[in-house]
Amino acid sequence: MGHVTTDDGVKLYFEEVGEGTPIVFVHEYAGDHRSWEPQMRHFGRRYRCITYAARGYAPSDIPESPEAYGQDRAREDIRSILDGLGIDAAHIVGLSMGGFATLHFGFHHPDRALSLTVAGCGYGADADRREQFRKETEATADRIAAEGMDVVGKAYAIGPTRVQFETKDPRGWKEFETQLCEHSTLGSANTMRGVQARRPSLYDLVDQMNALTVPTLIVNGDEDDPCLDVGNFMKRMIPSAALSVLPKTGHTMNIEEPALFNAVVEDFFHTVECGRWGLRDPRSTTGAIITAGPVNDK
After folding, report:
1. Which UniProt keywords are present, listed alphabetically (predicted)?
2. Would 294 be classed as within a structural domain?
3. Residue 9 domain-assigned?
C-alpha cells in the first residue's frame, strides 16, 4: 500500500498483491478500493493486482473544487497509477464510473492496456434521458452536500439496480452499504458533479469505438437496465469487443456474483494472453440474416 501523485498533484492511495502480469481495478461511484476485495484475493494468486481509491475517496486526496474532477482526470489517474508503479501496460478492469474511465483510457492510451474490461457502463448515455440524468445527478450532489454521505448512502445502496445484491447476499450488501456511508461527503458530491454529471454520452463516441482494437470485454447484469442497451451498442461498435451478461444480476456485479464475474474475466484474460482474441470476423456484420450473400440456384 502507498500513494502515487498525479500530474495535478493529487495523491492516490493504492494497494497491491501478487506477482506476474498486472491488473488494475478501477472502482465505481458507490465503491472504493475495498470493493475489489474478491478480485484481489482471486486474481492475486496468479497476477500482480492493484486497486486504488479514486480522487475524492479517502485515503486518497479529496480536492475541494469540483473542477479538479472529471472524465479526463479519471482517465489520466489510471495512467498515473501505471506510471507511479513502473508498469508499462496492464489489464484494466473498471465497473460503472470505473468502466467509463477504463473505456476512455483505452481510447487515449491503447498501448498501455493489455485488455479492457468495461463492466456496468452506460448510466446517462441514452439521448432521451440525458436531461433526466443531469437533473438526478445535480439533485443527488445537492442532497449529499446538505445531508452527508452517511445519510444519503443508505438510500443510494438500495437503488433499483442494487436491491438484487441485498436480496441475494444481505451480509455482503450490508458491508457494501457500510463502506458507502463512510465515503467523504465533499468527495462524493464533487465526484457526482465533476465526473458523473459531465461525462459525454457513449452514443457520441462512435468514432473512438470503431477505432478501438484493444481486446475488450463488456460485462453487464441482466437486471442493470440502464446498461443493457448501451452494452449491446458498444459490442456492435467496438470491433475487438465481446459481451457477457450475468443472469439475475444488478449493477454491483463483482461483489454480488464474484465467482461468476471472476470466471468470465479470467477466461477473457487467458484468451487474450494466448493471442487468440481477434477482431470480429467481418463476415458476421454483412447485414444478412441466414446466408453470406445471394443464393445461386444454378
Report:
1. Hydrolase
2. no
3. yes
